[in-house]
Amino acid sequence: MSAEPSKPYHHGELRQALINATEQILTERGLEGFSMREAARRAGVSAAAPAHHFGDTRGLLTAVATAGFLELQAALREANTQGGDRTARIQAQARAYIRFGVAHPARFDLMWRCEALNRADPAYLSASVGAFSLLHEVITGVAVSAEQLCDVAKPGIDVRAVAAWSLVHGFTTLARQGNFDPEMPGLMDGVMATLTV
Amino acid sequence: MSAEPSKPYHHGELRQALINATEQILTERGLEGFSMREAARRAGVSAAAPAHHFGDTRGLLTAVATAGFLELQAALREANTQGGDRTARIQAQARAYIRFGVAHPARFDLMWRCEALNRADPAYLSASVGAFSLLHEVITGVAVSAEQLCDVAKPGIDVRAVAAWSLVHGFTTLARQGNFDPEMPGLMDGVMATLTV
DNA sequence: AGTTAAATCTTTACACTGTTAACATGTCAG
DNA sequence: CTGACATGTTAACAGTGTAAAGATTTAACT
Asked: Do A184 and B162 form a contact (C-beta atoms < 8 A)?
């Protein structure tokens, strides 16, 4: 009897369910509206369950941030395939970066909220470095490894890439916080024009 | 008897004491380590006392962020008085901006943590717009008013100022989070060189 | 197959948080 | 002097993260 599954003791895919729930909370309420217990609630599970998969809150948020960087990577890669010369590809990536940050404010915010994350996590590190590497590569022609970005004093990181990254990241961050409207006619184009690489 | 003051019922300068305590916590433990109760504890006062002065946590943090913007304004103004031509003054301000953010990571972080602040607060608004206005003025020759920055769609904000702001803010933010070392030889100079205004 | 180890989830508990309500104390203007 | 008000206090509440101990399922090994 009782043909209904009626919630088995084991969830089965709790890890992914918690990540999904967290992303849902982020888009609905932002990062300040997130809590471990709320994520557990949405996944239909007790408050202590997430600990088995992520250790603590930091672990879950790091996993979500990692997923965000992979998504950003995909967007940058897609921009790269749009063709055009080097300058066109650089600008396309820059626009994709900005578009991502503006479209997913809370997720983008989390990705850089280093105090709330475990930056030593290998997956996070690789995903975040990989995103910057795409920009670095289209500008300099060579990719950048994780070691180069971790041991920051080491040479190998191109100054032009850091400048471009700073410009794009700053524009995205400031726009995301409502300091100006990124869609204001001519604004983004004008800012892009200063991308002298 | 009891010549000792032995803590009078009224603190006297609780408002400022709470702001000081918060800034102390920020430098010691960062924003994640802050709590209203901890600030009250350091000010030697009960947990409910701050509410009379700031309403809620958001109110206290907004006051601290406002103070931060005033400090930033002073740094930018000081950079402006160092003499030199227009380009020199622009670069001096940019360096002062970066120096401030790197020297006071948690405070700088808070200043832009808009979800944790009350952005409608007039003092905060005026202090933050005032800081940008200094950069805007040295670049374009005219200051920018609060209305112009609030009604973002309105013209009046110079694209060159937004680009410079984005570059400097992005560099500061990324460096602050440990993505690279701002003191790496040649890095900051190279990034500054792209400040083509 | 049967038994044991490991993984996954629950319940319970604890210390901490922000905020409110009700009350106490000091200040000050009329 | 006497309210009215600003500024404190205590007590309470709901919500949080996470740790400990027990329950249940899966998996692995003989």
From this structure: no
